[in-house]
Amino acid sequence: MQRFAIRLSAGVLAMLAVSVPRAMTLDEVVAKHVAARGGAEAWAKVQSMKITGNCIAFSLKTPFTMYRKRNQRYYVDHVWNGHRIVIGSDDKTTWSDNAFTDQGPVELSGADLAAAQGELHFVTPLFDYPRNGYQAKLLGPTVLDGNPAIGVELTRPDGAKETWYLDPTTYLEAGRESPGSDFGRPMPLRTYYDDFRKVSGVVVPYRVESQWYTRDRVFEIASIEFNAPVDDALFVLPPPPGMGPVLALVGKFKVALSQRDDPKAAWTESQRESKIEAQLRRALLEERFTADGNEVVRTLSYDRFRKTYRLTEISSESRTMDVEVGPLAEGQLTLSNVDTGTSLDVFGTTIHTKTMIHDITPDGFQIDRDVSTDGGKTWFTAAKAAYTRVAE
Question: Which of 178, 212, 235 is the last residue of a domain?
Fold first, then answer.
């Protein structure tokens, strides 16, 4: 009983040691914090930051580069245990390209998203928190790792909560408790801020350490460039592996067709319209059109494991899916079904097809369809399609 009283008294004394009056309001605390960080007027002159230094993770120190821009645009490129990890956000989509998982760029969700959203603030979320959709509650005098602090609880627009601990003397952030993630598993995250320096009229922590589960990550800042030029495209979710070069095929097109049944036959000309859309977060291109009364659906995707493109086609006439595979080289896709087992058998003849997609420009592209009846030894061009982009 006596030991409990001693511990309780120590806790009370720690609370009383905080130099902030209990009557201080939330607005007053936030105002002191903003002033401590250099003031709203000085920060209003800063529109972007390029931050470089070293990241310590898994006991290894490697360089990192971080960009911050107004409106929660964020990008960090760093290495964990020999694996490059990029995390970005354009204020609409928060994403990562994590070599640990080898998935390529993916939109974050769940615990990973909750953890990443805690890093998107340009200064701290206490700056203009109502405008950013946060709710705030003053917790008052508290303790962080045995040291006096002032607690402020923030509720994010998505309902997640984080607690900020301010130094009662300087009103700079000492720490933060927020949602974290360990490879998708929710974990409490604690972050510490230290080594504050005044640069170009504003104050910035040059050491940020995050701890969760058995993990520990430290950003040691070497330099900060304010108002560094940065293209907004940097913050946008990159396309899935292999899909970047073929996204120019997306759009609405007028198609001029030339077709023939054999190498000696005359070409037959016709026209149609077609639309190609990006699906599954740009992992798949889908084209739908009607030809000679038949509905046709084509898809184009990239297999990152086999390092090849895959073109599929099925129609209301064939009712079976043809699959062609092949590479992209010198701006041309060359795909065939010679090795896919989806050739067409007609009256005892095996027909293979080969598709070339080439001359890809912002205005359109060309498709040639070749046919072989000798297992791919020789080919003749059976169809040509010139796609010309039209306004949607």
Answer: 235
